[in-house]
Write a structure and sequence with these properties.
Archaeosine Trna-guanine Transglycosylase, Chain: A, domain 4, Transcription Regulator spoIIAA, Rossmann fold, 6-stranded mixed sheet, 29% helix, binds S-adenosyl-L-homocysteine
């Protein structure tokens, strides 16, 4: 056994062999005498368990990359693992020019996110271990995609927990500030350097297409960001009101509407909670409503308050529906699990006084794989509901 190996407790080893790729600091009995990088992991008896990314400063100390102790984690390894992830996305090419190429642990590439926006890529290197493979990853991505540029949106707060700096950096070629992409026939501009996440909420792509297929009448898109759902709703609905609290996002929404020659969206800067209450008071009604709030539950401690927020939003949205009206509602809070999400909707339905039919439940799309043995890879869930009367 070498001093640069990591030795883990039996609890850590069990978690690992049952399919979870993380080992916490508290389950390490011998820390590797090595800087951040890739290390050999062994159980208490010295048996090799495979290879993991090592983050000396993080609570998530080890992240499995390969369970085969004979593997060599070199450039060819990164190339082949990335090729597999990118290959899985091939069916999306005909629907959209923006989608996720790598969803971290969901693709066996821990703490690495890669999003494609047309001919450009935005990456996030979210651990000290993955940082050390930056050159191998960039080289493989350029080779596999032929992209014109790669931008690192390494401004995510989780980097602080890894002892890493937070910055936005060009890693390859050139990358424009804004890129126009196509999604199920709708065009939108994503702001890669300044937009939320890596520029757009790619995880809702298939839900936007779903909602577009059933939209009608007067429609409301709450938490619209740059008009994402609204642009799709506008194709079938008579009129769409898009509400967001961010003036910058709404400006891009107006730009996006013009880009699509869409004239039936009104962009409104408002707090969604206040907007709903005001609409209820004036007696406004809608045939289609989308509720796609930010993650209210940032951690377990804020869950109870978050559930109240989700419940209020959905209760008000249900009350605003015409008989037969449709509500698509989502939550991207990891801590609000699927059962809790359904409980919340049941409570909102009961309090709304409306009889709501559950028409469908949605999980993450193909490009955001949620592994059932790794709950942390899943966060987004949605429901399509219909007001019976
Ligand atoms: N529906 C969007 C994503 C929404 S993300 C899409 O599919 O792309 C959440 C959005 O909610 C952000 O744009 C943020 O500006 C907005 N937001 C956050 N709090 C808000 C509030 N209280 N009222 C209205 N908008 C809010």
């Amino acid at each position: 056994m070498s001093g640069s190996d990591a030795v883990v407790s039996s609890r850590g080893a069990l978690r690992w062999t049952e399919g979870h790729p993380w080992i916490f600091k508290s389950d390490i009995t011998q820390s590797p005498a090595a800087p951040a990088g890739c290390v050999n992991v062994r159980d208490a008896r010295g048996r090799p368990l495979g290879w993991a990314l090592w983050s000396p400063a993080s609570e998530i100390a080890l992240r499995r990359v390969d369970a085969d102790p004979a593997a060599r984690i070199d450039s060819a390894w990164w190339h082949s693992r990335l090729a597999r992830a990118i290959g899985r996305r091939a069916p999306l090419e005909s629907d959209a020019t923006a989608f996720r190429l790598v969803h971290a642990e969901g693709d066996g590439l821990p703490s690495l996110v890669v999003d494609r926006y047309d001919r450009w890529l935005v990456v996030q290197l979210l651990s000290a271990g993955i940082e050390t493979f930056r050159d191998d990853i960039v080289g493989a991505l350029v080779d596999l995609t032929g992209c014109e540029g790669i931008l690192a949106r390494n401004d995510a707060s989780v980097r602080s927990r890894e002892g890493l700096s937070r910055d936005v950096e060009l890693l390859h070629g050139t990358v424009p500030d804004e890129v126009t992409v196509i999604e199920h026939g709708v065009r939108y501009v994503a702001a890669l350097r300044t937009g939320q996440k890596t520029g757009a909420f790619l995880d809702q792509r298939e839900n936007r297409a779903l909602v577009a297929s059933v939209a009608r009448g007067r429609a409301l898109d709450l938490f619209s960001y740059h008009g994402s759902f609204a642009l799709h709703l506008a194709r079938r609905a008579d009129q769409v009101i898009a509400v967001d609290s961010s003036a910058a996002a709404l400006d891009r929404g107006r730009q996006n509407a013009a880009l699509n020659g869409t004239a039936n969206i009104t962009f409104t800067e408002a707090d969604a909670f206040e907007f709903l209450r005001a609409e209820l008071q004036t007696g406004a009604r809608y045939q289609t409503i989308v509720v796609d709030p930010p993650a209210f539950a940032k951690n377990r401690a804020s869950l109870a308050g978050a559930v109240r927020g989700y419940r209020d939003l959905n209760l008000h949205a249900m009350r605003l529906l015409e008989p037969g009206g449709l509500l698509f509602t989502a939550s991207c809070s990891y801590h609000l699990t699927k059962p809790l999400f359904l409980d919340m909707l049941r409570d909102a339905g009961a309090a709304s006084g409306r009889r709501m039919i559950l028409r469908g439940l949605t999980v993450q799309p193909l490009d955001h794989p949620e592994l059932i043995t790794i709950p942390e890879t899943g966060y987004l869930k949605g429901a399509l509901l219909e007001a019976l009367d």
